[in-house]
Amino acid sequence: MELSAVGFSRQQKRGVLFHFKDSISFVGCMTQFYFHFGAIENFLLAIMAYDRYVAVCIPLRYLLIMSPNVCFKLLWGSWVFGFIVIIMLSL
């Protein structure tokens, strides 16, 4: 699925660059936006991997390391970095 997302978004960008259009259609924009949510998913998977690492390797300090505050910050960070990736790829 990620390969199709990269291919579609690059195809749209290539079409804008070579046909000298100032914008893409609304449907194309929403499709590209939908497929780039995979970037956010990748950050969430990395956070889940870190969570499991702490749970398995440091079980006695798990609650100290993965407090609700830390979990919220990791979740918020995944959304922020995901949108940064989306914006960088869209430019």
TrEMBL record:
GO molecular function: G protein-coupled receptor activity; olfactory receptor activity
PROSITE patterns in UniProt: G_PROTEIN_RECEP_F1_2 (PS50262)
Membrane topology per record: Multi-pass membrane protein
Domain called G-protein coupled receptors family 1 profile: residue spans: 43-91
Bilayer-spanning residue ranges: 33-50, 70-89
Keywords, sorted A to Z: Cell membrane, G-protein coupled receptor, Membrane, Olfaction, Receptor, Sensory transduction, Transducer, Transmembrane, Transmembrane helix
One of the Pfam families matching this protein, by short name: 7tm_1
Highest taxon of source: Eukaryota
Gene3D superfamilies on file: Rhodopsin 7-helix transmembrane proteins
Cellular component annotations (GO), alphabetically ordered: plasma membrane
SUPFAM superfamilies hit by this protein: Family A G protein-coupled receptor-like
Compartments where located: Cell membrane
Protein name in UniProt: G-protein coupled receptors family 1 profile domain-containing protein
Species: Aquarana catesbeiana (American bullfrog)
